[in-house]
Every structure is written in structure tokens, then in C-alpha cells.
Specification:
GO terms for molecular function: nucleic acid binding; RNA-directed DNA polymerase activity. InterPro entries: Integrase_cat-core, Integrase_H2C2, Retrovirus_Pol_polyprotein, RNaseH-like_sf, RNaseH_sf. Keywords: Nucleotidyltransferase, RNA-directed DNA polymerase, Transferase. This is Reverse transcriptase. This protein has about 475 residues and is α+β, with helices and mostly antiparallel strands. The chain has 3 domains: about 130 residues, Endonuclease III, domain 1 (Orthogonal Bundle); about 210 residues, Ribonuclease H-like superfamily/Ribonuclease H (Nucleotidyltransferase, domain 5); about 50 residues. Helix content is about 35%, strand content about 15%. It is built from 16 helices and 16 strands. Strands 7-6-5-8-9 form a 5-stranded mixed beta sheet, with helices on both faces. The protein has a 5-stranded antiparallel beta sheet with strand order 13-12-11-10-14. It has a 4-stranded mixed beta sheet with strand order 1-2-3-4, with no helix packed on it. The chain is elongated. About 25% of the residues are buried.
Length: about 475
């Protein structure tokens, strides 16, 4: 080490530039009798640094071992940059210590896959809007329910995005064939085929059998982006509403009677006035209001005033129904736009670009102490400002940017020295300079230093003879 040679006066092998650099920092270093180099804080340092009298200077060959001990090992505990740096600087020192700790902790794979959630908000991709009943159907299911007395363990949920009407069906499995048969029974035979079916990436929904079934009916499938339940928000919210309602009516100790209430509770949901649409889902589908059992046994008139003439009553009902549909379309457009604007107000530009290395955050598929960040993966394509397509993640290649976290990268400084000949240099201003412009001006008492022949020694401390 050149600094150690400078401190013990072995300076013959040093160049003039090296001697100048070492001379500017030599006051902070000392060499003991065992030929070990120590860093000694000067009076300009803080009081806490002065209490730590001497810190051993570590060579480059041992720096990674020190970082591994104080961060990666069980004694280090994968602490953050600040704590790791404080523990190392209490005993050891090298130039650029904080940057070394920052880089080592930032590139730690275990810390990258366990600590922190993605902070990228990302813009809203918008939402689908239906213009008439059962044009777009959202699907979801409540899995792994207690086995009922009828042998059912799954509850399939269908939601009409225009009216908000919900249809539920209990089943014993969630295979693609069961889903197709349930859709045919609950939706197709009652309301006809839909244009679009919105669902998440459940294997039963994404199977070839269900795709062939939709192709026969002329329906398009619109799967959501991976690991983003907000894209199927209507169905996800209805799952929560249905689950809460079932909890209030299930009486069996083993919860095996849930399927007796699941399908019957949809009447209460479909006959309640929707806050966004302004009407009940039942009326927006049929054009008339149903009567409950209480309304059927007492002389309560219809909630809609109508004429006794059937033709005139039908005309007025259809006219009012068209007005309701136009009003619902307008309200849905405004609600979707307001939610997107509210979300985008919090979104900020993100640095994710094509070629970036990212971690994928999977919070819903990991349990216990499993790592929730997986990867890293390379971004193959940037889709707008809200999604990316991965190049090596082949299962669900398109994900929202809120589910990714950039990998911290610390590029190395160039270490190759560029040696160019004088003939390769081109200085356009050289001809305009005087011939002696490169000669530095000196005072009369200043001379150029050719060689360092001797230097003064330092002090004696309790650690032995110190050369300075």
C-alpha cells in the first residue's frame, strides 16, 4: 500500500503525484509497530469520532468479508445502510466506506426480495363501461368454503356491469366445465349471450375449454392484468358484499349451511337502490319493480304509477325506461372518469423503461415468511404509463407498474486508462495560445520539487512508535 510506504518513509518507489496525494491525507493515518495501518480522526471530527481513538484500515481484499460479516451473516441481521455503516465504522475504515456499504446493501438479493413494497403508483388504465344490460359480465368466485350439506365448496359470482345485478351459484368444483355449465344456466338461458366476459386469471377461466365455449357463443374474454384485482373491481367488491351478508345468516356451528342463503341473498342486493346508478338493478333489467312477500299480502300499490290502458302504460314504461338507461350511462361515465382522475392525481412519473431490471411483488400468493418479491426480471416493453411486459416472466407477462420494484444498480466506475498519442490530440485553440502558455508562473521564492529525500517523524503513543 502506497500510503503505508509514505508513512514509514519508503518513498523512493512513489511517483511525485502519489507522494503529493499521500502527503495531503497522511495526517489522518498512523502505522504501529506491527506494521498495521490505522485511521486516527483529527480534531476537526466530531466528539463521537474522537472517542474511537484508532480504526484499522482494511485492504480491498478484505472489504467484502467485512461487509458480509456485518450485514449478511446472522450477527449482521440484514440491517439497513445506516446501522451497517455505524457498526463497521466503529472498528474499521477505508476510503469510500459509506458508498461501499450503500452499494452492498442495495445489491443484497435477500433485502431486495423481502424489504419494502413497491412505491410506484402508476396511472389507472381505465375501466370497461357497458351501455345496456348484460353487455359485459364480470366473473369471480369465492373458493375453499366449508363443505356444505349438499357437498358445495365454491361460490361463483356473476355481476352485470351496466345494472350492477348479481347472480350467485354454489358448486362442488371450479373446473372449466363447471364454470361453463353454470354460466349457461344462470346467464345465457335467461338473458342471452354477452359481448364481453371480464374475469381474473383463474385457471378455470383461462382454460382452453372455457375459451372454446365463449368462442361458440361469440363472446370475448377480457382477462385482467396479473396480480391486480382492481381491474375486476365490480366482481371483487360484490364478493366482499356477499361474504359479509353470508356471515350474518350462517347459523350452523360448522358453517355448512352457507349455500342455503347464498343464492337467496341476491334478491336483497338486486332490489336495493344503487348509489351510482340511481335505480335498482332489478328495475334496470326488467323495467318494473318486484314485490316482496310483505308487499304481496297487504294492499300496497305499485311503486310505479301507471295508466289503466295497457298500451299507454307500456308506452310510458318504455319511455321512462329509456330515460333511465340514458341517465345510468351518463352516471357510469362520470363515475369511471372521476375514479380514474382521483387515482391519477396521486400518480407520479416513474423511471421504469424498457430494459430495466425489476422485482415482481406477489402479496396475495405468498403466506407466512415467504418472500413476496420475485425475480429479478427484465422489462421487455413499456405499455403506456401503467403496465409493463416482462421478457422472462412467461406465465403472466403483463403486469401493472404498481406491482414492480426497481432493482438497485450501482454501475462501476471505469478503470481502464485511455492512452492516446500526442498525434491523436486535436486542440482547435492551440494555435491561438502563446508558445509559453503552458509554463506556470512562480514566485521568486518558489522552486520545482524534484525529489523528497527526508521527512520529519511523529510522536510516541501507547501503541508504540508512530511514524508520521
Amino acid at each position: 500500500m502506497g500510503l503505508k510506504k509514505y508513512l514509514i518513509e519508503e518513498i523512493r518507489d512513489l511517483t511525485q503525484e502519489e507522494a503529493r496525494v499521500f502527503g495531503s491525507i497522511a495526517t489522518n493515518y498512523e502505522v504501529d509497530q506491527l506494521d498495521l495501518l490505522f485511521y486516527c480522526p483529527t480534531s476537526k471530527e466530531t466528539a463521537a469520532d474522537r472517542d474511537k481513538l484508532m480504526r484499522l484500515v482494511m485492504p480491498e481484499t478484505l472489504q467484502q468479508d467485512i461487509l458480509h460479516h456485518y450485514h449478511t451473516s446472522l450477527q449482521g441481521g440484514h440491517q439497513g445502510v445506516g446501522r451497517t455503516y455505524d457498526r463497521i465504522r466503529d472498528h474499521f475504515h477505508w476510503r469510500g466506506l459509506y458508498k461501499s456499504v450503500q452499494r452492498y446493501v442495495g445489491e443484497c438479493v435477500d433485502c431486495g426480495t423481502v424489504k419494502g413494497r413497491p412505491r410506484i403508483q402508476g396511472e389507472s388504465p381505465g375501466n370497461l363501461q357497458a351501455t345496456y344490460p348484460f353487455q359485459i359480465i364480470a366473473m369471480d368466485h369465492i373458493p375453499s368454503l366449508p363443505r356444505s350439506f349438499k357437498g358445495n365448496t365454491e361460490l361463483l359470482v356473476f355481476v352485470d356491469l351496466f345494472t350492477g345485478s348479481v347472480i350467485t351459484k354454489a358448486s362442488a368444483s371450479r373446473s372449466a366445465q363447471t364454470i361453463a355449465e353454470t354460466y349457461e344456466e344462470c346467464v345465457f338461458l335467461r338473458f342471452g349471450a354477452s359481448e364481453v366476459i371480464r374475469h381474473d386469471r383463474e385457471p378455470g377461466f383461462m382454460s382452453d375449454f372455457f375459451k372454446s365455449f365463449n368462442k361458440i357463443l361469440g363472446q370475448r374474454q377480457r382477462a385482467t392484468m396479473a396480480y391486480r384485482p382492481q381491474a375486476n373491481g365490480s366482481a371483487e367488491r360484490m364478493v366482499q358484499t356477499t361474504t359479509r351478508a353470508l356471515k350474518m345468516y350462517v347459523e350452523d356451528l360448522d358453517q355448512r349451511d352457507w349455500d342455503e342463503y347464498a343464492e337467496r341473498l341476491t334478491f336483497a342486493i338486486n332490489t336495493a337502490r344503487d348509489r351510482i346508478r340511481g335505480e335498482t338493478p332489478f328495475y334496470m333489467i326488467h323495467g318494473w319493480d318486484p314485490r316482496s312477500t310483505l308487499e304481496a299480502v297487504i294492499p300496497v300499490g305499485s311503486t310505479r304509477k301507471h295508466d289503466r290502458d295497457p298500451r299507454r302504460w307500456r308506452y310510458q314504461m318504455q319511455k321512462y325506461y329509456q330515460q333511465v338507461r340514458e341517465q345510468v350511462n351518463q352516471r357510469l361515465r362520470e363515475a369511471i372518469a372521476d375514479r380514474a382522475d382521483t387515482h391519477n392525481d396521486l400518480a407520479r412519473p416513474h423511471p421504469v423503461e424498457s430494459g430495466s431490471r425489476v422485482w415482481l411483488y406477489l402479496d396475495r400468493v405468498c403466506e407466512g415468511y415467504a418472500k413476496k418479491l420475485h425475480g429479478p426480471f427484465r422489462v421487455a416493453e413499456k405499455i403506456g404509463e401503467h403496465a409493463i411486459a416482462g421478457s422472462t416472466y412467461s406465465i403472466f407477462p403483463v403486469v401493472h407498474v404498481s406491482k414492480i420494484k426497481l432493482v438497485q444498480e450501482f454501475p462501476d466506475r471505469p478503470v481502464t486508462r485511455l492512452n492516446g498519442s500526442e498525434g491523436d490530440r486535436v486542440d482547435f485553440d492551440e494555435a491561438l495560445l502563446p508558445e509559453d502558455s503552458w509554463i506556470q508562473d512562480r514566485d521568486p521564492d518558489e522552486y520545482e520539487e524534484e525529489q523528497i529525500s527526508d521527512m520529519r517523524t511523529g510522536k510516541r503513543t501507547r501503541y508504540g512508535r508512530i511514524y508520521r
